[in-house]
């Protein structure tokens, strides 16, 4: 279909940067999620790609053609907004056909393409319904069909499921992923939902304050976060502040080896990497509460210094008020000034320690 290239794109509003020196290559047929909190610049970036905002600097290329200065209608892009943006005085068929009519295509071709688009999004029999007669999920499918019927090279989705309930969001994101793979269209998807990004993306771009924190496939972003921000934003993460002296953490509950230069660090590890033990010989903590999710339990634990941690345990486990805690030494990371300085990971049964940069 198409390749998207974003080179050093910035966007300022007054003296403030919404996007700062952003670069990204999106390969043919790839689905990339722009993930970040509100105000991170992800929607502004998407609007610049679609031509609805003009960059303050940098360039945007589609198949090596510079489209930076082109208006939206001249770009080979299709955009689906959170608000659906459907015309309520038109039925579904005419909403989808509107762009094709502007192109003055033959009526027979318009009908064929609209019917194909409706079938693609699972609304084959809905052409003559008014948009006000549709559910929120159905309206979003019409908005998707309206973009796809124009056969864009790049599909842009700006938090399209944000206004829908959780079950509908989950169902629609699976359908969108299936449609995207069937059509093979290059896609950028903006979301602030980590679950959505992990479920949909070939790669995730984690953004903060208009800049890139990390770009990687979902499993790498989850298992190997490169900054403290990414570690805390993707999934549930435990953070423990400690000092390193002689290559060992000085925190009484986590005296683990961290072979880096002395100084303050933040240790990070997932709830599934924290073991609870009834033994009183291990570091003692207090159980705050236990939440049963059916397949597992999440246990909130308070340390003596006020730090609260989460541990994942078996669904049939029961813990008294006082427990011992023990992190797997092979599954933690150390951050200093938001930067990853040490990681300890396991590959098979081999244990790998890695020191990154100058600690």
From TrEMBL:
Keywords: ATP-binding, Nucleotide-binding, Transport
GO molecular function, one term: ATP hydrolysis activity
Origin: domain of life: Bacteria
Single Gene Ontology BP annotation: quaternary ammonium group transport
Record flagged with keyword Cell inner membrane: no
Entries under Gene3D superfamilies matching the protein: 2.40.50.100, P-loop containing nucleotide triphosphate hydrolases
A Pfam family that the UniProt record links to this protein: ABC_tran
Record SMART domains: AAA (SM00382)
Domain ABC transporter: 4-234
SUPFAM superfamilies per record: MOP-like (SSF50331), P-loop containing nucleoside triphosphate hydrolases (SSF52540)
InterPro entries linked: AAA+_ATPase, ABC_SmlMolc_Importer, ABC_transporter-like_ATP-bd, ABC_transporter-like_CS, Mo/tungstate-bd_C_term_dom, P-loop_NTPase
Recorded family membership: Belongs to the ABC transporter superfamily.
Protein's name according to its UniProt entry: Putative spermidine/putrescine transport system ATP-binding protein
Organism of derivation: Rhizobium metallidurans
